[in-house]
Design a protein that fits this description.
The protein has helices at about 10-20, 30-40, 45-60, 85-90, 90-95, 115-125, 130-140, 140-150, 170-190, 200-240, 245-255, 260-265, 270-280, 285-300, and strands spanning about 25-30, 80-85. The chain is mainly alpha-helical. It has a two-stranded parallel ribbon.
């Protein structure tokens, strides 16, 4: 039986696999600390505004890492294998195991001394009594609490982990773009009246959506500008390639390229343009190009 040929890409996959297996899971509190500071900075605002402000702060300040051998990049946290703490949902899930989470036999997460200090000095003092889970415990009906205590209702897994399994409305983002969504927000805002019962909550929610959107708008605008730059470079490459040996063509057809096109070809990417043209263009041809160009410009000016 013939041996199965090993594909070259399997080496990269094996390196990724070994790195994951050898990386010790640890608590990742970066998102929690940024979110806490965001809530502290937005004190007094409606809850939806504070969440939007904290989300925007996380997006702008969180660590973005790309590890070696990765083709699909991105991570919810700042560490290769990290446990994310959703402090606004339930900060106490870590507080209950602060001394044991690093050494517990089942699913341990290493807690660095500096992270423990941040938890004790920043996270716990602020969130104590404010998390969603604590509010649920206070408002929980007696019958639901009884079902929970006897194991008929198990809520301690999902209720303490924050958002998960959330699918964004990608089709709308693709069809309308962030500018389209923001335009829709303003269109709806124009129909609302703060003096009309029920509209105040809608206004604040839409403001929160708008507050969270500039980050995405900026990212998409930067990506769009990057695509445009690449397109201009490809265009410049084409134009420069066409100008190889242009002196003969110019004399034969009596045509002059537009100054904009000519300058873009020569000056947009001088390293690329010069090296490409230099391969097939001698010093004498260069002189004839510029001489002919100046003459034609002089004629047009007259």
């Amino acid at each position: 039986m013939a041996a199965i040929e090993r594909k070259p890409y399997m080496d990269r996959i094996d390196r990724l696999k070994q790195r994951v297996l050898k990386t010790k899971p640890e608590m990742d509190l970066e998102n929690a600390i940024i979110l806490t500071k965001g809530f502290q900075e937005s004190e007094g605002q409606p809850l939806c505004i504070r969440k939007a402000y904290a989300f925007k702060k996380q997006c702008l300040e969180k660590t973005v890492k790309i590890w070696g051998d990765e083709l699909i990049v991105g991570n919810a946290g700042s560490k290769q294998r990290g446990g994310i703490l959703s402090v606004d949902t339930c900060w106490s899930v870590l507080d209950e195991e602060l001394d044991t989470i690093s050494t517990r036999p089942y699913d341990p997460f290493y807690l660095r001394p500096e992270d423990r200090k941040a938890f004790e000095e920043i996270i716990r003092p602020y969130w104590k009594g404010r998390s969603t889970y604590e509010q649920w415990l206070v408002q929980c009906p007696d019958f639901a609490a009884t079902l929970r205590d006897y194991g008929a209702l198990y809520i301690n897994r999902k209720s303490v982990r924050g958002w998960g399994e959330t699918t964004a409305g990608y089709s709308r983002v693709i069809k309308e773009g962030m500018e389209g969504i923001k335009a829709h927000i303003h269109k709806v805002l124009d129909t609302l009246d703060i003096t009309r019962p029920g509209d105040y909550e809608k206004i604040e929610y839409l403001k929160a959506m708008e507050l969270a959107s500039p980050h995405w708008d900026t990212a998409m605008r930067q990506r769009r500008e990057s695509w445009q730059r690449q397109s201009r470079m490809r265009s410049a490459e084409k134009n420069c390639y066409r100008l190889q040996g242009p002196a003969i063509r110019f004399r034969k057809n009596r045509r002059v390229p537009s100054a904009r096109r000519f300058s873009r070809c020569i000056f947009t990417r001088p390293v690329f343009s010069w090296s490409r043209m230099q391969q097939a263009t001698t010093r004498d041809v260069w002189i004839s190009i510029f001489t002919h160009f100046i003459r034609q410009i002089s004629r047009l000016a007259v």
